[in-house]
Amino acid sequence: MQVTRSKLAYGTCSRQLGAIKLAYAFPALILVFSAVPVFSKKSLPAIISFFGILLVLVIWTRLNQKKELEAEEALATAAANKAHIRHSYAPAQAVTLVSEQLPSELLNTVLPVWQNHVLTVKSQTENAVIQLINSFGSLIQQFDEAGFSSKASGENSDKHQATINLINLCQQDLEPVIAHLEQMIDSKGELLDAIKTLAESVADLKDMAHSVGVIAAQTNLLAINASIEAARAGAHGRGFAVVAGEVRRLSLISGETGKTIGERVTQINEVVKSTLKTAQKANEQDRKVMQQSGKVVKEVLGHVQSLGDAAEEMRSRGEVIRNDVENLLVTLQYQDRVSQILDVLDRDIGKLLKTMAEQIPMPSTAEWMADLETYYTMHDQHSSHVQARGTPSQSASKDDEITFF
């Protein structure tokens, strides 16, 4: 309608401008015909008439110039409106022409193919998503069997705490063993010190035996001197000689006894020294064994602690992975959204195909779009509908009537 009006306005302005330009020709003819008598007779009335006609023509020309300018402006405005309307309605006209030129045979052939493609996409998407859901469901089941279930987090925590308590109990039980080993080594050290003291005492006994031998030798020498003096005294020294003989005999016995004691003390000293050496060697070996045992026990406890920490970290990472898999399962619900969109599209294509096949009168665009909108169930569908039409949708504003996924 607007294009037709624009064409009419443009044609009217063009005709008016042509009429104004044609009007310039009539005064020129009048001027030519009026000039012929003037130049042929050269009379005063003819000259006055000629200049009067010339003045009228000048006034006429001025008026026509003003009308010509107005007509040109109107023609330019009409041309601009025509170009604007033509530019605005070019896509709509193209769509109208294409829709008018599309044969019904083409639509009857293409629409079933589109419908089959939509159903194929829907079927393949559903199958692929179902396989993914089954695979991820199997992963979650394996996580649950491995003890990474979020429902069993309290039980897993109790098990982990029990493991920690067991490790602490082992550590508490092993630490006294190490302490007892250290005490045993210390007691052996005390025994070793006692043996050292005994060895020193035996050495003192040897010195004492030597001293006894020296005293016996001195006593024997004294007894010999006493016998010599008793012999010089004669009869008066016989009693003293007997005493000197007994003293000498005792000194000899004492010397033999001291010698025997010295020999025994020497033997005991050798035994003590050998025992001391063996005890020292055994003490060093026991201390090394104890140190090695303590080191091994501490390493074992450290490994057990590391194992407990690794198990806790593995449990934490397993829970994180399980949560990620659950999030993936939630994300895979996009298939339901796609399926709903494809269902609406399949229904609309089927409706159009049925309308054309049964030659049912086509409804208006507004009625068709309104009917299509009634089958939307998601906000995305309403948004796409609004973007395509460029007008607000009443159903899109009713969030409480839309099912979100």
TrEMBL record:
Biased composition (Polar residues): 384-396
Keyword Transmembrane: yes
Protein's recorded name: Methyl-accepting transducer domain-containing protein
Organism: Undibacterium parvum
Keywords: Membrane, Transducer, Transmembrane, Transmembrane helix
Family the entry assigns: Belongs to the methyl-accepting chemotaxis (MCP) protein family.
Alphabetized Pfam families for the sequence: MCPsignal (PF00015)
Signal peptide positions (record): none
Swiss-Prot/TrEMBL GO biological process terms: chemotaxis; signal transduction
Matching InterPro entries: Chemotax_Me-accpt_rcpt, MCPsignal_dom
